[in-house]
Amino acid sequence: MKTVAGAAGGFAKEFTCLRRGAGFGILAFILLVLLTGEVAWAQESAQSAEGDNGCLVCHGQEYLGSVEVDGAAQDLFVGPEAYEESAHGLLPCASCHIGFTHDNPHQMVTNAEFFAETAREACRNCHADQFEMYQQSYHGELSRGGVAGGVLAPGCTDCHGMHQVQRVDTLEYRQDIQQICGQCHGGRTDTFLDTYHGKAITLGREASATCVDCHGSHFILPTTNPMSTLSEANHLDTCQTCHPDADEGFTSFLVHIQPTSTDAPLIVFAVAIFYISMIVVVFAFGGIHTLLYIYRGLKNGLYFGKGGHH
Amino acid sequence: MAEATYPATGEERLEGAAVAETNVEGRDYYVRFSPYHRLSHFVMMTTFIGCALTGPPLKYSYDFWAQAMMGFWGGVENAGLIHRVMAGFMVADFVIHVLYLGYHIGLKKAKIFGPDSIFFWKKDLTDALGMVKWFFDRGPRPRFERFTFWEKFDYWAVFWGIAMIGTSGFALWFPTVTSTLVSGIFLNVARIIHGDEAILAIGWILFVHLYNSHLRMNVFPMDPVIFTGRMPVEHVKHDKAAWYDRLVREGKIKPE
Ligand code: HEM
Ligand code: HEM
Fold this sequence. Notes:
Chain A has 310 residues and is mainly α.
């Protein structure tokens, strides 16, 4: 079930030996580092996040490679700098990897499923509100039911990452959201990017709306659910958070729309097709006239002052 | 630049179009565009360029050039502000032009159809066919009147364009007003109109209008008439033969 790949292979074998034999030596060394060397480590390089439980001594090394779990490669490398810059940069690794301690870092590894579960559940310990909302959301419901249409429902880490959890109040994160949701809702992202909201946020206008400003982030529900931020009852309120003057008519603006598809309302479809045709006809007229004029001019050599007027 | 004494009636002076002038660089010039026409075109040109530099970067937000341009303007909000200011002047120019038309047609009883009019008439069709023949050397160049058919097309393209782009632009500018007056779905329609009309207008100006004013054979590298208003009489004669004949007949210019 679990195979070791890459550089980790040799290392891991060695590691097993170490654990059996000189294991205590290395753990003692790590302890030493933790107790005495924190400051020195941090100064020397970004290899040590504060309170990393000493895990980064090994996991901060890129040559650790990856392990294969259920057929998927899992990178064992945790970028120390990125970790430090993340919102959790000050957290000890074991606050999520519960039970991993430097006394025996890998006692839990034997059960990958359990390990993954604890890490995910860990979010709940500190972010209970978000967790509860998520549990009640459509995504949360799906996650308990497993797979829908071959796509997995997103968990905390699909939207936030594992070790590079960004602060959410930054422009960068707001700009990323469309891609995050787009992993599974690509069509919706495409149509969204065709609206002012999508264009403006892409170009850095932070005040513009992105997916979660309309749909919510943790309590996402189908729009048919009365509790949804976009249900008939709540739709207008949602727009009004940024468009205070909006009234009921405003909600008939279509966010996710492909004007040239036949699903579009007739008026939108008709105008889109009309304009495409007009562009073709007008450019054909102008283009042909211009090209013929150039042709005639070249033929007469008029551009080079040889001929007469016109 | 002294104006010649060639007869110009009060009316024509008002229109500002039919004044002949001699001896700028020793040539005879005919004043084709009045100061109003020139100013109006200048405003249209500058505001159009302003809008064309600030609007499309939003439409093509995913392209690197658009992002670079938005960076240059200092962000979407700034570009949007410039876009709106430019658009304001453009629409003002347009409204004044409509008033101007109303004044001339309504009060001065200017003829809607005729050789001096920018409206299409039957001759445009025969001229267009004549042009095609001329392109292939199958006939003489048509004897144009004051406005050639492509100039008229040019004018009406702009006229229609400003009307559409302006209406849709204001609809997007005040989205909540639009949805109150009509409905939110008209904002979807307005976006299509605004974006597509912009493509149409920019393409037209770039490939047709600028061709006509810069690269058309005898004006290369540029026809300054729209800025100076003055056109050499010899050009009038060769470019717009029927008009030339009429001006001579009416005694407005001295035959060459
Ligand atoms: C005549 C009056 C005009 C008005 C009132 C107007 C107004 C607007 C407004 C309010 C927007 C929304 C975007 C923003 O907030 O910046 C916009 C976008 C835009 N404008 Fe204009 N504009 C006008 C003329 C023009 C012209 C002349 C062009 C180019 C030839 C142009 C090209 C664009 C483009 C390409 C967009 C982006 C639309 C999209 O993303 O689909 N506009 N305009
Ligand atoms: C961008 C630079 C532009 C240049 C250099 C330019 C130049 C010219 C010139 C030389 C003429 C006179 C053509 C002739 O009849 O001999 C002209 C006419 C005209 N221009 Fe422009 N133009 C520009 C932009 C625009 C824009 C942006 C608009 C409107 C949106 C516009 C609208 C018109 C109209 C309606 C006419 C009268 C019809 C005609 O004579 O073709 N122009 N322009």
